[in-house]
User: What shape does this take?
Amino acid sequence: MKWWERWPDRFDHEMRCLSAHGLGPVDTSTAEEMEAGYRSIVIDYPFVDGQPIPVSIKFPPEYPFFMAFAFLDPNMMLLRRHQNPTTGELCLLNAGQSWQPSHLMGDEIITMLPKILKIHEDPHGPYAKEQEVEQGEPLTGYFTKDNGSFLLIEDMEIPEDFSHGTFEASILASDRNGSRYALTKVINALDGQSITASKKLIQSLKGYPIQRGKWRRLEIGLENAPKNERDFSTLAAKIDWHTWHTFERQQRTSKDLLLALFQEEVQQGTFADAWLGIQLRTVFNHSRGKGKKKGGSSNKQGQFVFGARYDTKTRWARSPELQALEDTHVCLVGAGMLGSPIALQLARAGVGRLSIVDPDYVELATIIRYGLGADYAGRAKVEALQDYIRQNYLFVQVDPIQYRLGVPFPGERHNHKKFLAAVEAADLVIDAAAEKNVSYYLNDLLFSLGKPWMTVTTRPGSWGGETWIMQPGGPCWSCLEAHNNDESLPMPNGDADRGLQVGGCSQLTTTGNGFDADIYALNTVRAAIGLLTPDDNGYPSPNWNAMVMNLRGETGDYIGPEFTPYTMPYHPSCDCN
Assistant: This one.
């Protein structure tokens, strides 16, 4: 049911309200709009010297729970603030935040538009600061970023005397979803000086192809922001006329990238550099008819490539407690149902280096509870995770170590020395292998190295799980096993299932659900990040060394998550005491 059918008087009420304010509303809703649940009204608002200019009001299908949108054609009048230069949408200050279903658009228009017009007269004056929310109005926020293309911008401060020149950018991807680049070098044509991205980013981009092109510093604002294909061409010609002219005339397949550097408001009254790219692509279709000379036709394509800030300040602004992670190294042993989500979450959090140790391959039938999907089936688990993390988390260095602990076969794929080097270099080791032999070995190795480590397991059926923290000096894994033998510590619930063998698999496995295991993995990640970040401004450190987690009751019934933290004591029989 359409909203005006559910509340028959509501649309008429809006029309009467606008009429009462002298705005001469006209219902311009088309049959197509109404079929989709939209309604439209056009009013005449007296903008300059009392001369009326049409303002279109568009009501969404979810009205009145969401307010309507107001549009002013930018070709008729372009405001210096609070108007999208491409669509004409008006920002009615904070009206959207204070909107209530009982409000009327006529009241909002008559209240907010005079304020916007006064701000237009002095965009950065005291009245604007008084009326506006304390936030900037970046020009790039008005562009429609629906083509899947972006240009990653790291910590690259371009000097003001850099006016134009050449650049280098790594091509992260170029497919039907768009083109993704990372800017790595900017060269000034006047003196040959250059600014480069950080060594860390350049190292992470090693092996990616390079795109080179021209760039220019320009004055771009609301009044000359590109809105259509004509403006697109004008901007490209301003950046580098020769490249644009060649693109217009050439009859061969090619792809060029031009970049514009300009200033935009990033916070109220504060401006910073921003980048906007234009990708020019010519696709030449060869054809040869019978008895005819070889010929063809060219299809010329152009699209915007939007600058995406990925500098240190921007990256960590939303999660400041995690910034110290970029200098940490974690060694993860086991990359299965528990280890794969741990690897992905650590990468997402921003761990600087991640060594992943696992001997196995991604089985197609296991993706129901694995961190990655069918695209990675058949690949080594460590290499699959490395590939995914490299594509999505550029500042995380992954060391894949395909190695099975306890085997007597030397060689690169079973490199014990490589594994030992990763353990010795790590700030924290996480055991997610769920194999007792692995835990016993890590306990002895890490106790001798004086390194902290964690271990996480899940019980059959994933009814319950455990996370333990082993600090240098103990209590240790042997203490835990001795306590388990004494039944002196709380234990999580588990199914009576002793294991099963699935067709095509040479080893026994157990039942369990990926979404349950994720909870145990996430709890381990939280504790790990607390251990890795500083106490004063990092993520809170765990005040326990053992956690029992239950998602199912003793008989397998559904229960609310039960997390029981406790302090595991030394066991009197253990040598670490």
Remarks:
- The chain has a mean pLDDT of 90.
- The chain has three domains: 3-133, 142-286+297-314, 319-566.
- Residues 334 and 445 are 17 Å apart (CA to CA).
- The domain at 3-133 is CATH 3.10.110.10 (Ubiquitin Conjugating Enzyme).
